[in-house]
Amino acid sequence: MAAGVPGPYSGVSTLAFVARASALAFGVVYGSMKLSYLKAKAKSYNKAEAKGHH
User: Fold this and answer.
1) Nearest-5° angle of CA 39, CA 34, CA 16?
2) Is residue 27 part of a domain?
């Protein structure tokens, strides 16, 4: 494929766009799940720490 050749191609592949959008959505969902897991883990750890000191 030659660079700079004019044509109907817009430069944005639908497949690439869908892949990026899917990766972004997966990352957001994974990140929120991971964050909630870590928050719950920290909460139980802090509860156990408080229980151990008293």
Assistant:
1) 150
2) yes
- Find where tokens 């909630």 sit: 36
13-23 pLDDT per residue, tens = 899 999 999 99
Domain membership of residue 3 (yes or no) is no
Q: What is the pTM of this model?
A: 0.59
3-state helix/strand/coil string of 4-44:
CCCCCCCCCCHHHHHHHHHHHHHHHHHHHHHHHHHHHHHHH
Tokens representing residue 9 in the block: 């191609």
The pLDDT of residue 7 is above 70: no
